[in-house]
From TrEMBL:
Transmembrane segments: 79-99, 140-164, 257-278
Organism for this UniProt entry: Austrofundulus limnaeus
Domain of life, source organism: Eukaryota
Neurotransmitter-gated ion-channel transmembrane domain mapped to chain residues: 88-196
One annotated Gene Ontology cellular component of this protein: membrane
Pfam families for this protein: Neur_chan_LBD, Neur_chan_memb
One GO MF term attached to the UniProt entry: transmembrane signaling receptor activity
Protein name: 5-hydroxytryptamine receptor 3A
Record domain Neurotransmitter-gated ion-channel ligand-binding: where: 1-77
Keyword Transmembrane included in the entry's annotation: yes
Length: 281
């Protein structure tokens, strides 16, 4: 069977009738005229539809002259069942993979969604192995169709992993800078407290009271300075959050380029597959 264009394939069967013992002088094989009733006598079963039925007479000259009657039956596979149960679901999974580019790259939801769709296409390939006829001289187009879509989805998953890795690099660098700023603030507060304790050591009560008043005034001034520094730190932190890091910018560029490449590749692949399916073997 030629199943290269499965499930849009057309199969032809040739049956030859002739006598093995008698020649034309002893036995004559005659045909009758083709009518609509002749085609109606053929009943197709399961997934096949009778497309054409022809016969013609020939002559086989071996030892004796014998008349042969050759019947040619052409049948077409009923492809609507395979389109509804296999091709449309695969295309739906492909459309879901295309829609996943609208999901944010942060959080991991996009990667999990893409892997789920990829596993669904793998299950469809296992179903194809059961419904596809085993006898074929070429790789069927439907197998190439599934392998092509699986490859495109695999590239999409790999691109998502790369983009998430680049974004995580900026996130880790921002965490390191925040930790360094916290350590600097803690060191400043520790130095300020230790200097006050050293100044108050070894003083008389009267001097200590005066120093205490002076310390309260200095502490109020220092607290104002600390509050101003905290405001500056918060403003700088917000500006850093608003600014995108180098790796984040690079990840967004890669994602835009790959999205355009992916959409164009899918459209081109589907057009090529449709032209091959609609063409000749």
């Amino acid at each position: 069977m030629r199943v290269y264009r499965f499930p849009f394939d057309i199969q032809s069967c040739t049956i030859t009738f002739k006598s093995q013992s008698y020649d034309d002088n002893e036995l004559q094989i005659a045909d009758r005229k083709k009518t609509n009733e002749t085609e109606n006598q053929f009943q197709t079963q399961d997934e096949w539809v009778l497309k054409n039925f022809t016969w013609n007479k020939g002559t086989a000259e071996n030892v004796k002259k014998q008349t042969t009657l050759i019947f040619t039956i052409t049948m077409q596979r009923w492809s609507a069942l395979y389109i509804a149960n296999f091709l449309f679901p695969v295309l739906f999974f492909l459309s879901l993979d295309l829609a996943s580019f609208l999901i944010s790259d942060t959080g991991g939801q996009k990667l999990g969604f893409k892997i789920t769709v990829l596993l669904a296409v793998t299950v469809m390939q296992l179903l194809l192995n059961e419904i596809l006829p085993g006898s074929s001289d070429k790789i069927p187009l439907i197998a190439i169709f599934c392998i092509g879509i699986f490859t495109l989805m695999l590239l999409s998953v790999l691109e998502t992993i790369l983009v998430m890795n680049l974004i995580d690099r900026d996130a880790s660098s921002q965490e390191e800078t925040e930790q360094n700023m916290k350590k600097k603030r803690e060191n400043k507060l520790f130095c300020f407290g230790s200097s006050k304790d050293d100044d108050s050591a070894g003083k008389t009560p009267f001097v200590i009271n005066e120093l205490f008043r002076d310390e309260q005034a200095e502490e109020s001034i220092n607290l104002k300075m600390v509050l101003e520094e905290l405001k500056e730190v918060l403003l700088n932190h917000r500006k850093d959050e608003e600014k995108e890091g180098y790796w984040t910018k690079m990840a967004k560029r890669i994602d835009k380029i790959f999205t355009a490449f992916y959409f164009s590749s899918v459209v081109l692949f589907l057009l090529v597959m449709c032209s091959l399916w609609m063409g000749d073997d």
